[in-house]
Amino acid sequence: MDVTPFAQAVVNGLLMGGLYALVAVGLTIIFGTMNVVNFAHGEFLMLGMFGTYWLNRYTGLDPLILIFIVVPIMFLFGALVQRILIQRVVSDPHETQILLTLGISVLLMNTALLLWGPEPRSVPTPYTFAALNLGTVHVPLPRLIAFVFAVALAITLWLFLTKTDLGRALRATSENKDWATLMGIDTIRMYMIAFGIGVALAAAAGALMTPFFNTFPRAGVFFGVIAFVVVVLGGMGNIVGALLGALVIGVTESLTGQFVALDLSMFGVFVIFILVLIFRPTGIIGGGRLY
Amino acid sequence: MEVKGLRTAGKAAAPLSASRVLLLMLLAAVVVFPLGDQDEYTLRLATNIFYFGALGCAWNLIGGFGGQLSLAHAALFALGAYPTGLLLINFGVTPLIGGLAGIAAAVVGALLIGYPTFRLRGPYFALGTLAFNEITRILLLYFKDYTRGPLGLIVPFRGENPLYLQFANPEPYYYIALGILMLSVYVGYRVSRSKIGYYLMAIRGDQDAAESIGVDLTMTKLRVLAMSAALTGLVAVFYTVYIAYVDPESVASIDLSVKIVLIAIIGGMGTVWGPVLGAAILIPITELTNAWLGSGKAGASLVLYAILLIIIVLFSPRGLIIWLERPYRTLISHLSGKG
Amino acid sequence: MLLNVEGLSKRFGGLVAVNRVSFQVRKGEIIGLIGPNGAGKSTLVNLITNYYRADSGRVMLDGYDLVGLKPNQVAQLGVVRTFQSSKPFMEASVLENVMIGAFLRTDNPKQARAVAMEALDLTGLLPFASVPAKSLTVQNRKRLELARALATKPKLMMLDEVMAGLNPREIDDALETLRQLKQSGLTMLVIEHVMRATMNISDRIIVLDHGEKIAEGSPSEVATNPKVIEAYLGQGYRHA
How do C79-82 and C156-160 pair as beta strands? Predict the structure, then answer.
């Protein structure tokens, strides 16, 4: 039996899974730290894409360089959004939070639509069509580079959270807000940083995708939804869960698309989502917060 | 019952109470309106306000009174529209009958969605409904042999035929939509004053306490969801003959779900008249911005919706209708004083 | 005999919260349920109402086993409880809160209202009928819990620390209300830490410690029971 289609689908799935992981980890950090479900997450990814696109148009620099500009800017933007809007609803019922972030989502998406129109744009790079060939499996270079970068970012994040004082303070806040306050940690500042990091990760994923994904205002919707599925699968607030969940979802999507029907690739993902929600809402790996 | 927002018929026994009179006057004005030689555009605008108001009221049953933030109402809408449209186009079944199939499909779909997700608390319910909505849209696109996929269903106009709800003029559609809106408002009113309305209040307040005094959480939510779905399905039947074009992007997308939620929230969720106010504000805004900027700039009205939503959520979470409460009460007491 | 609890047990992970507890409640009695903190009193109430599902044992109400039912079904059958930290429906008025309880026995809003007004009268909350529940004092919130539970016309009412946070005069008021309820035929199980109140009002007392029943009897019997003294004060006081 020719395993190539299978192997190809798995490879594709893993590569995308790496990017899903970035987005999902961002979402789960936000939830883990301040218990907010960020329905606007996909739109921040979209903004990362657009930021990269426009900078590329004006400077001609490669997305892999521009990411170092886009990510810090988006971090600041995220922190700002948190301080001005999200902070007001952190202690409100979750319905209020959902409505607020939904509003932000609609706002961002449609402002982008208004400013830049719905037409998809692409960021040209010299390596857009390059690929490695591992045996019979075709590995597109942009996706591979994006995956590697995503891994590097994840490692950086891990180092930050475990080895730096700020990272530890963040983890303390997400573990137990009241204890963290007692220890002198400024929780509002932590929330701003956490939200900023979450947004920055999503934007980073967006930037990394520009060589092979079209940039348009609605681009974030899909990834936002995937991020939620991954986070639920891995357990809300569970970073490792988000990483593993992302790979599982990436591969599921790819395999469904390959062997069932291309149009139904998302269907398999959603079915898993609903099943997890019904039977294991704390996440397959467990350790997720249930509310 | 203290319904947040406009109080209707506080003194239920007196048929000529001030609030009833006001209501009748409003009704008379709306009924008489088309007879004053209005142009088609205004009538269509009003019709749109009516059916979106009805959708908002329908969502409000489960979202506002029930406190369950459903993002799946577009899916329910699509489940109402597609059977009606398909029966009409493929088999020539009048929507008066085909519509029953649509409504049934919407209710069944709602129960399928509700039963597993009502056990979930917090954002999981909203996420679950989001997933169901997307699944419905994907399936509608996928089974293109049956649903015509992305091309959608076109209901051709073959001349005036009341039995098929086909009218050449906008007036009949105006009245049908108005009727549906009145029904939706009435259902909301009855729910809010009945046992199920009180039980929903308990569920919103504290689910554990509610259960301890006999409230069956799941059954109550399912009942009100079924009502919500039936009304949504009814509006969808109307939409099928009125707009005469049904495709997954316009009837099953998250955009529609969000729009319905916005109408209810901005107007005032959990109140009887809130969603009507929401529609009355948001639909004209869409028209105005489309006219002003050209409908190519479709995002503009949604930007305004979003800003309004954010402002409402942060500063006036009970919606805009509470700002009308004081003037309304002043008006009522003036009328009562004189009557 | 109204309620027959047989061998009720529950463990959470490795911790045994309730261990084979059995007792009976006769119609019209007030049973006091006491024990040191963590003895399992609230858990026991949660088990009887199926807020938690018991691991083993039976709870027979008029011959019908309650274990495995949903909490609202238990209420339907006539067993109702109040919560230790009162859980009013905050946004609703006092009257609406109680009406929700009354709706268990009727579908008619007018009737529910009438029953609710009665319950409010009994608990002295009538002046507060249209006040939002969230603005009530602690004492009145407890009364609201009570009124709401009464409106369900229960056979057995279980009161979880209904006296907690009350000053001595308020406690006397509460005791008086309970006496009146008993006179009207209501059977009650009262969990309390306020000793003099419990001793005062109970016909019989059951003592729990570490999830087990260690004593049962009249208030005076229980007060002099060495095991009970030991449980509360520690072993050194056994012969005090």
Answer: parallel
Query: Which residues of C have a CB under 8 Å from any CB of B?
Result: 49, 51, 70-73, 75-76, 80-81, 83, 87-93, 96, 99-101, 103-104, 107-109, 112, 130, 148-149, 151-152
Q: Which domain holds residue A218?
A: 21-118+138-279
CA distance C138 to C164: 9
How far apart are alpha carbons B282 and B305 in whole angstroms? 7
Q: Provide ipTM, 2 decimals.
A: 0.89
Collapsing DSSP to helix, strand or coil, C83 comes out as coil
Mean pLDDT for C91-113 is 95
pLDDT tens digit string along A258-285? Answer: 888 887 888 888 888 888 888 877 777 6
We report the CATH number of the domain holding residue B260 as 1.10.3470
- Average of per-residue pLDDT across C49-72: 90
The predicted structure's pLDDT at residue B52:
97
Q: Is position A144 within any domain?
A: yes
Chain C contact for B193, CB < 8 A?
A: yes
Residues of A with CB under 8 A from a CB of B: 37, 85, 88-89, 94-100, 102-107, 109-114, 217, 221, 225, 228-229, 232, 261, 263-264, 266-267, 270-271, 273-274, 277-278, 281, 290-291
Rounded to whole angstroms, the Cα distance separating A43 from A45 reads: 5
Q: B193 vs C104: CB contact, 8 Å cut-off?
A: no
How many domains are contained in chain A? Answer: 1
Q: Is the pTM of this model over 0.90?
A: no
Separation CA C129–CA C120 (nearest Å): 8
CA nearest to B124 within chain A: A277
Hey, what are B5's tokens? Answer: 């927002």
Question: How many structural domains does chain B have?
Answer: 1
The whole domain housing B182 covers 18-22+45-154+166-334
Mean pLDDT of A149-173: 90
Tell me, yes or no, whether A125 lies in a domain: no
pLDDT at residue C234 in the model: 64
Residue B5 pLDDT level (bands cut at 50, 70, 90): very low
User: Which residues in B239-271 are b (16+ Cβ under 10 Å) and which e?
Assistant: bbbbeeebbbebbbbbbbbbbbbbbbbbbbbbb
Across chain B, what does the average pLDDT equal?
87
